[in-house]
Design brief:
The chain is mostly helical. 63% of the residues lie in helices and 7% in strands.
Length: 204
């Protein structure tokens, strides 16, 4: 059964949405320096992660997961890639190093987000290393009263979304197999392959 948020929680989510718009504007403000843009990007990541975990249905309706990828990661990756490919750029090596670090941070973010989503929404994915084994977050669900229970299909979708972007980030993209996109990721040294069917089976 889908549990709808309280009026207070709805107000909080609306406030977070407005705050996200401010942060996105800051990130494109040419008057801000790199450090300020980085701070805004980190804040946007944290804010969108909170929205996805608190009320997944609301977040998906507002396309939070798409904004998260595009504004917090993809745009910066595209910019750095362009600078790194520019042979006339005297700082190509430095840019390439920054790109590698950013990709590593992006991979870490989506791995942690996937772990938290699976823990909070009780999604048991095949081959998933438990959060406690990675030392990321506890497997115990906390503050569940402040979390709106989503539909299982939404849980499947957001987990698939995380896996797809992990496949975009790391050099382990798998091809389409039939109608399923199989995304392979590395968890603490172990290889883990998951499909959409796996996600449907794991979402409870």
């Amino acid at each position: 059964m889908l549990i709808r948020p309280s009026l207070f929680l709805t107000d909080v989510l609306f406030f977070l949405s407005r705050q996200a718009e401010v942060l996105k504007a800051d990130m494109t403000d040419s008057k801000l320096g790199p450090a300020e843009v980085w701070t805004s990007r980190q804040a946007l990541q944290d804010l969108y992660q909170k929205m996805l975990v608190t009320d997944l249905e609301y977040a998906l309706d507002k396309k939070v997961e798409q904004d998260l990828w595009n504004h917090a990661f993809k745009n910066q990756i595209t910019t750095l890639q362009g600078q790194a490919k520019n042979r006339a750029n005297p700082n190509r090596s430095e840019v390439q190093a920054n790109l590698s670090l950013f990709l590593e941070a992006a991979s870490g973010f989506y791995t942690q987000l996937l772990q938290e989503l699976c823990t909070v929404f009780n999604v048991d994915l095949p081959c998933r290393v438990k959060s406690s084994q990675l030392g990321i977050i506890s497997n115990k669900q906390t503050h569940t009263s402040a979390i709106v229970k989503p539909q299982s299909s939404s849980c499947s979708y957001i987990c698939q979304h995380c896996l797809v972007h992990l496949g975009d980030i790391v050099p382990y993209n798998s091809p389409l197999v039939g109608r399923l996109q199989v995304t392979s990721i590395v968890h603490s040294g172990s290889w883990c392959c998951m499909t959409l069917d796996d996600l449907k089976m794991g979402a409870r």
